[in-house]
């Protein structure tokens, strides 16, 4: 739940050090292919079959949790939520999926050998879930199952789906992996449902959706006050509010308080440590932040946001080499990520290493092209593309992309900040200052990032730029709060 493309989203695995597939139990309904075992999988959003069609948050949440479970398994490369969920509006219900043509098209787009499709119906406290594992090459069903249970059995259903997929693929699980699959952060079905609604809203990454996500997480906590993951979600929401939407010190205090409480409830929750790291880093408590990120990584080496926000924390301290290393790792953990790779190019540029900056920019553009093919109206992805095109000296194309982002989100401080960077690099000083002032007026509150952002070097001699920094400092939006109770 941390970033636009990743916020507590699924994490990809590389294959180094993972267990190889070995003989195992046969799939329940269909035997696995006798050809070489597929090793890449995508879980598509489950289809909402409820009478009112108002359970998409639950369908998305179930798919997301299965993705998270599968990322824990050695021998599988799992497509990210961002990529898989781009097909939400492009496919029909699971029973009607074209076995060969549709599977091949989706698999080719996502770069996977396997698809998991499913459907959900919730009626009168009962939960009906169907799930199926499809071989992309020929549309063959490798496994399928239907569950008709009480709503409170959702946690067992999730565990059974992930475990049976692994069994169908004849992969070996360690005892620790089996314990990790389906591990429930709460046993209250209503709290879980509300958390999923909040997560769905958080992934939209707008001011309105962030506020709505906070409300949902708080409702989940009213049902289960010990729900540490929901407290981590609240913390991330308030950190995002402070950084991008309201620059209010009160938001930062809420973020720190919620992250601290999440850790009080569950010190083994990697997401809680990552949320804590983000919150205290925004208060310039960098040593504490780095310790939190290190612990998050120790607990879950595949947690993308731990690396990503750790890298950002290093950058604002001028630790550019360490930031680059962490961005590289974040990029490997989630091969569909568009942000870490783009900021990697930016960090190399800051260091004056144009060779590595160009290489990272080319990599980022490949990912951005895939992302925009599935999400053509994502303004953040569009201005990141503009930034990387400019790195590769494709000025005219970069300008077109910047104008496109501006037309899609003319008042979004998140987008305005990115546009300010691009205009500054183009040495269009008035346009850059106008965009930056609008971003800050709109709520962009991360003063230390502005101070260290090399893209603004052309602006540093402009009195308006220093006035803006002075106003942020006077307002306290540099994030300097040392109150130890939080």
Short recap of the structure:
The protein is an alpha/beta fold. Helix content is 57%, strand content 8%.
Structure description:
- Helices cover 57% and strands 8% of the residues.
- It is α/β, with parallel strands linked by helices.
- Strands 1, 2, 3, 4, 5 and 6 form a six-stranded mixed sheet that branches.
- Helix 6 runs antiparallel to helix 7, helix 16 runs parallel beside helix 18 (413-425) and helix 17 runs antiparallel to helix 18 (413-425).
- It is globular and about 65 Å long.
First-last Cα distance: 21 Å
Largest sheet, in brief, is: 6 strands, mixed
Q: What share of the residues lie within helices?
A: 55-70%
Helix and strand string, N-terminal first?
EEHEHHEEEHHHHHHHHHHHHHHHHHH
Name the structural class: alpha/beta
Shape descriptor reads globular
Number of strands: 6
Strand content: 5-15%
List strands and helices in order, with pairings:
Elements: E1 40-43, E2 47-48, H1 56-70, E3 77-78, H2 81-85, H3 101-110, E4 114-123, E5 126-135, E6 141-150, H4 154-168, H5 175-180, H6 189-202, H7 207-223, H8 228-245, H9 249-265, H10 270-281, H11 286-299, H12 304-316, H13 320-333, H14 339-350, H15 354-374, H16 379-391, H17 395-408, H18 413-425, H19 429-442, H20 447-452, H21 463-474
Parallel strand pairs: 1-3, 1-4, 2-4
Antiparallel strand pairs: 4-5, 5-6
What keyword list fits this structure?
486 residues; alpha/beta; 6 strands; disordered N terminus; disordered C terminus
């Amino acid at each position: 739940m941390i970033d636009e493309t990743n916020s507590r989203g699924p994490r990809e695995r590389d294959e180094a050090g993972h267990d190889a597939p070995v003989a195992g139990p046969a799939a329940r309904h269909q035997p696995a292919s006798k050809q070489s075992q597929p090793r890449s999988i995508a879980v598509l959003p489950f289809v909402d079959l409820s009478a009112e069609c108002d359970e998409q948050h639950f369908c998305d949440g179930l798919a997301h949790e299965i993705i998270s479970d599968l990322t824990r398994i050695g021998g599988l490369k799992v497509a990210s939520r961002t990529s898989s969920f781009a097909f939400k509006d492009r496919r029909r219900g699971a029973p009607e999926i074209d076995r060969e043509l549709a599977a091949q098209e989706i698999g080719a787009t996502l770069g996977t050998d396997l698809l998991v499709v499913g459907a959900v119906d919730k009626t009168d406290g009962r939960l009906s879930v169907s799930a199926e594992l499809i071989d992309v090459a020929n549309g063959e069903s490798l496994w399928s199952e239907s569950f008709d249970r009480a709503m409170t059995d959702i946690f067992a259903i999730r565990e059974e789906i992930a475990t049976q997929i692994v069994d169908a693929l004849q992969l070996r699980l360690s005892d620790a992996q089996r314990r990790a699959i389906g591990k429930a952060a709460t046993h209250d079905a209503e709290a879980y449902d509300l958390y999923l609604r909040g997560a769905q809203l958080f992934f939209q990454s707008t001011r309105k959706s962030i506020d709505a996500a906070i409300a949902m997480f708080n409702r989940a906590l009213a049902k289960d006050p010990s729900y540490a993951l929901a407290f981590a979600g609240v913390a991330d929401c308030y950190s995002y509010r402070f950084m991008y939407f309201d620059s209010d010190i009160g938001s930062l205090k809420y973020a720190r308080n919620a992250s601290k409480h999440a850790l009080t409830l569950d010190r083994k929750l990697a997401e809680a440590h990552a949320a804590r790291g983000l919150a205290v880093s925004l208060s310039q408590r960098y040593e504490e932040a780095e310790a939190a990120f290190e612990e998050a990584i120790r607990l879950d080496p595949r947690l993308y946001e731990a690396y990503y926000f750790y890298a950002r924390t290093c950058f604002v301290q001028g630790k550019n080499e360490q930031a680059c290393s962490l961005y590289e790792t974040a990029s490997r953990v989630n091969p569909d990520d568009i942000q870490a790779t783009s900021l990697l190019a930016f960090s190399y540029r800051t260091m004056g290493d144009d060779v590595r900056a160009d290489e990272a920019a080319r990599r980022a553009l490949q990912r951005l092209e895939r992302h925009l093919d599935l999400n053509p109206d994502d303004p953040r992805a569009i201005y990141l593309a503009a930034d990387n095109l400019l790195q590769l000296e494709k000025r005219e194309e970069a300008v077109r992309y910047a104008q496109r982002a501006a037309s899609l989100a003319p008042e979004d401080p998140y987008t305005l900040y990115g546009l300010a960077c691009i205009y500054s690099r183009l040495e269009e000083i008035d346009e850059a200052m106008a965009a930056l002032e609008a971003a800050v007026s709109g709520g962009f509150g991360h003063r230390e990032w502005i101070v260290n952002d090399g893209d603004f070097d052309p602006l540093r001699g402009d009195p308006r730029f220093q006035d803006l920094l002075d106003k942020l400092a006077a307002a306290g939006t540099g994030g300097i709060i040392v109150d130890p109770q939080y």
